[in-house]
Amino acid sequence: MRKVNSLIACSILAISASAFAADGHEHGHEHDPLHGGVVVEANEMDFELVAKADLISLYVRDHGKAVKMQSASGKLTLIKGADKNEVQLAPAGDKLEAKGTFDVSAGAKAVAVVTLPGKKPVSVRFALK
After folding, report:
1. Is the dihedral of CA 58, 63, 66, 68 positive or negative?
2. Would you say 104 and 90 are in contact if contact means Cβ atoms under 8 Å apart?
């Protein structure tokens, strides 16, 4: 009888562990950067900001799948010390982007407001590395 109880307990633990391992994350998808940027989760979506001195790109994933950006819009505010720079983000293929000259050095912060078709605007905060 003791062996049967032990076997049942081990089976339950094994099933629980495999279910947890299959999920990987609490929401069931990856939050890792796919484009070398900084990823932040908001409204159950992942926002990845790729900030370069001459180009800002913002990618959006919903449960791991890329969101179509052709009808999306956005505004990004870059903050470095007392300096603030607002830029409009426009659709560019699978992302929103802005071209220009940007201070995206370590310590800069960014706040993006993204509007996807049929949804309320989402505000996302990033700390640049």
Report:
1. negative
2. no
User: 110-119 pLDDT, tens per residue?
Assistant: 999 999 999 9
* Any domain includes 100: yes
* DSSP output for 82-125: TEEEEEEEEEETTEEEEES-----TT-EEEEEEE-TTS--EEEE
Average pLDDT, the chain: 81
Does residue 2 lie within any of the structural domains?
no
Q: How far apart are CA 76 and CA 113, in angstroms?
A: 6
The model carries a pTM of 0.74
Q: For residue 114, what are the domain limits?
A: 38-128
